[in-house]
Amino acid sequence: MRPRAMRSADSRASGGKIRDVFARRDRLASGSEDGIVRLWDAATGDEVRRLIIEEGHASGVSSVAFSPDGTRLASGSSDGTARLWDVTTGNEVLRFEGHTNRVYSVAFSPDGTRLASGSSDRTVRLWDAGSPTGNADAGTLPATITLDQNYPNPFNPTTTISFNLPEPTHVRLRIFDTLGRHVTTLVDRLEVAGCHEVYFRATSLASGSYFYRLDTGTTSITRRMQLIK
User: Fold this and answer.
1) How confident is the model over 64-121, as pLDDT tens digits?
2) What's 25's DSSP letter?
3) What is the pTM assigned to this prediction?
4) Alpha helix (H) residue ranges in the chain
5) Ranges of CATH 2.130.10.10 domains, the chain
6) What number of CA atoms fall less than 13 Å from residue 45's CA on the CB side?
7) Rounded CA gap, 226 and 153, in Å?
8) I need a surface site. Which of 47, 48, 95, 203 has the fewest CB within 10 A?
9) CATH number corresponding to 11-135
10) In 133-167, which positions are buried (b, 16+ CB within 10 angstroms) versus exposed (e)?
11) What is the largest CA-CA distance in the chain?
């Protein structure tokens, strides 16, 4: 007996090939080459929501996964990011940056508080996904805005820059040379409260001292780092 599809969602609604699908309860999620995650009604096959913001995934979505309670959805992309979405509102809740290549797989821990991501850069990373509601525990939030010393330092060619936010804040994290010339912008967006890590790869830069500066609406913090090749 030949198997047949009981129902189908119209994949032509996607802007490219569908790379991954994940089912949870009455919902089906799909990620496609157009960089959009789509939610479908598993019973009717109708598209019910598109998970995309102004920035969106810069490239195709390679993987999707629902949280154990079905309230959040994780997606991994060719742009090297993993993102966490609120299924009800369609809003992006968290963004995880650090992979240098396509994120091929994302998966939640059984309690939904951790997210694992696997990439073609041959790394697997474990992220803090917050509480099952997508909000961090207020008792674990930092009391003030801080910018930590990068690690390792000196570095070649990759280092990690960490900063902490007591509440949701628009953040700009930029790199400057010793003459005060802007080198690159690592972050320029609204970030949720909590601890954040940004990976900086300085492959194209010459050895020497550089400064990284965190700017918010109320705070500006600058630290020095050393690149040695």
Assistant:
1) 787 877 778 888 877 788 888 777 777 777 777 777 778 888 888 877 778 888 888 7
2) T
3) 0.46
4) none
5) 11-135
6) 9
7) 6
8) 203
9) 2.130.10.10
10) ebebeeeeeeeebebeebeeeebeeebebebbbee
11) 73
